[in-house]
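ARCHIVE CARD
Drawer: 12
Card no.: 0347
Subject: one protein chain, sequence and derived structure
Cross-reference: see card 0346
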Amino acid sequence: MFYKDELNRMIKELRERREDLLGELKTLPEGDFMCTEQDGLKRYFQRLPATGNRKKERRYGIKRKPEVLNGLVRKEYVTKALRTIDKDIRALEFAAGRYRPSDEITLMEGFVSKHPELAGAIYRSGVKEEEWKSEYGRIDGYFPDSLKQTAADGTRMRSKNEVYIASRLDHYGLTYRSDCPAGIRGLNRAPDFTILRKRDGKIIYWEHMGMMDDLEYRIDNKRKLEEYEEAGIVPWDNLIVTYDTIDGGLRADLVEAMIQSWLL
């Protein structure tokens, strides 16, 4: 698993956010926000610390100065956010420094090199990934005009969202076929992705449905899911189904959740 990459990505994002907030902090009013309340009446102040030529702490009423009031309120949030970000960065840097990847393939290959006679106990599925991937080729002439996008490995795909899913499968080192026969007798369908789950050798199918505003597309996909169910490909066991959002986008968090919960 490539979790260290994710830790480093989070650290990078937090550092960038920290720099943005530090830049904003320089533009905000001097001093701190202060609020007092007496008899149900709130009073807001700008508190200026004793520093330089200012021998004593000063407080100025700012209820009638919305720009200063709003600026100091924002400053209080930014200051607290920076403290939280600093703590998070330290925690993530510690985790990234201590992290040691537990790549399943590397661990299994290291064990098998010493004990080849026990390979069957390690590779529970008995499936060799490269042989499995090349077992079926892509279906020629399967709507070739719609293959307008290109994944990182050069595979032509039908949408940017399919390319994104492929990139996340690649990120986690998952072996998959794209637009290849399902390998089930009597099922004349080519799933968007046919994935070999490493932990147990189970085949998981993934369909991403895009043009749900197109009636014919919806009818065909309803028929497809019925054919899948007849062939034993069902959402509660070995089928992932995702959809474009209403504006044609993709819920990346749902894609990540599917991979984390189904495929790893």
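Annotation on reverse: The first helix runs from residue 3 to 25. The mean pLDDT is 84.
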